[in-house]
């Protein structure tokens, strides 16, 4: 039976890979994207050109709010909610408006899912753990909110508030919702403009410029290939238990940022060196680094049969191979021209 699948933020970094996967693996389904193009790593026209002809893909360029105002008789079966401001630097210009925009979109999609009796998959964030227990983050841990008010905290609160509203609504209504908390997604098409570290490092290595490591570089992350993330999203949509939350992240790729910089230099064959800087010198005084974080992914592995496949070396290689084949202008746009 042909299903109608709605993807919000489908032209973003994760969204682009998700619609690629869905249109390939579910050719009989209708995949429809709505995207306001606020946080897109590459122009949607270029993404569509890279994807090629997809007869089961349609889209609208609009906000979720504007989409909701339209008369739409489509009966949705599944809703993937990815649309959001993103990035440790990307969120800075939305200070004071992040909670409003994220929560408002969540309520609109909650109502849409209920109206259509559709399953809703909400993509939250690992930021809600506040660093967990010395970086280790498991679903049963308390959601720790740091005491210092930052714009990064506003983003985490917005995502946690949305999760809470969705799960509470599901307790008193037929809402069928699954929550995903991804960890440090990386791979082809990611943009350094939002503050993501790997495309910034790769960009600098291509030009043999020093890799700018923030602080001491001892920050711990667990990088997860975007393709592994996408498979986790689809498995959660199709196999996840309603009202459950799942960490999607590869603990085998646990690494410090300093070690990541060294690997990038090694794997790209660059003659770059490393320099240690205050990130505020690059992104301004509002920027804050996240606490250490890496996931317990046991729940996703056992309940969803999710198995991350990509090593950290493969993530770096895929990102490098994608970026080095871009024309110079596109490369600068993707990495952020100011980084050179």
Features:
40% helix, alpha/beta, two-stranded parallel ribbon, 12 helices, 15 strands, 7-stranded parallel β-sheet, 340 residues
Q: What oligomeric state do the depicted chains represent?
A: single chain
Amount of beta strand: 15-25%
- The ordered H/E elements are EHEHEHEHEEHEEHEEEHEEHEHEHHH
Count of DSSP E strands? Answer: 15
Overall SS class? alpha/beta
> What are the segments in which pLDDT stays under 50 over at least 5 consecutive residues?
none
Radius of gyration: 19 Å
The rounded distance between the terminal residues' Cα atoms is 51 Å
Chain-averaged pLDDT: 94
Outline, from the CA principal axes?
Answer: globular
For the sheet with most strands, the description reads: 7 strands, parallel
Task: Report strand order across the widest sheet.
Answer: 3-2-1-4-5-7-12
Compute the number of helices.
12
Helix content: 40-55%
Describe the structure.
This protein is of the alpha/beta class and 340 residues long. Helix content is 40%, strand content 17%. The chain has helices spanning 13-25, 44-51, 64-69, 98-116, 151-172, 197-206, 226-239, 257-268, 279-283, 298-303, 312-324, 328-335, and strands spanning 4-8, 30-35, 57-61, 78-81, 119-123, 136-137, 176-182, 185-186, 211-214, 220-222, 224-225, 245-248, 254-256, 274-277, 294-295. The protein has a 7-stranded parallel β-sheet, with helices on both faces. A two-stranded parallel ribbon has the order 6-15. Helix 1 (13-25) packs across helix 7 (226-239), helix 6 packs parallel to helix 8 (257-268) and helix 6 crosses helix 11. It starts with a strand and ends in a 5-residue tail after the last helix.
């Amino acid at each position: 039976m042909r299903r109608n699948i709605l993807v919000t933020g489908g032209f973003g970094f994760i969204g682009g890979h998700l619609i690629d996967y869905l249109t390939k693996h579910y050719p009989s389904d209708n995949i429809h994207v709505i995207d306001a193009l606020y946080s897109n790593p590459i122009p949607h026209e270029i993404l569509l050109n890279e994807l090629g002809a997809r007869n089961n893909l349609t889209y609208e360029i609009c906000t979720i709010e504007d989409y909701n105002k339209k008369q739409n008789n489509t009966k949705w079966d599944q809703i993937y909610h990815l649309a959001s401001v993103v990035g440790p630097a990307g969120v800075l210009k939305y200070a004071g408006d992040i909670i409003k925009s994220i929560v408002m979109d969540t309520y609109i999609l909650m109502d849409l899912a209920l109206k259509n009796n559709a399953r809703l998959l909400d993509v939250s964030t690992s930021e809600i753990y506040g660093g967990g227990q010395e970086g280790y983050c498991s679903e049963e841990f308390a959601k720790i909110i740091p005491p210092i008010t930052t714009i990064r905290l506003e983003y985490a609160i917005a995502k946690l508030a949305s999760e809470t509203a969705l799960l509470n609504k599901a307790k008193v209504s037929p809402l069928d919702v699954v929550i995903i908390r991804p960890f440090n997604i990386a791979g082809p098409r990611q943009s350094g403009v939002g503050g993501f570290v790997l495309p910034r490092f790769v960009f600098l290595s291509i030009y043999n410029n020093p890799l700018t490591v923030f602080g001491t570089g001892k920050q711990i992350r667990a990088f997860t290939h975007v393709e592994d993330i996408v498979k986790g999203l689809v498995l959660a949509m199709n196999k996840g238990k309603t009202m459950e939350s799942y960490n999607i992240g590869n603990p085998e790729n646990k690494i410090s940022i300093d070690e990541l910089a060294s690997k990038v230099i090694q794997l790209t064959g660059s003659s770059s060196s490393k320099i240690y800087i205050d990130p505020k010198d690059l992104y301004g005084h509002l920027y804050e680094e996240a606490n250490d974080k890496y996931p317990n992914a046991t729940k996703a592995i056992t309940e969803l049969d999710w198995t991350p496949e990509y090593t950290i070396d493969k993530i770096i290689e895929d990102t490098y191979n994608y970026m080095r084949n871009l024309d110079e202008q596109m490369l600068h746009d993707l990495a952020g021209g100011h980084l050179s």
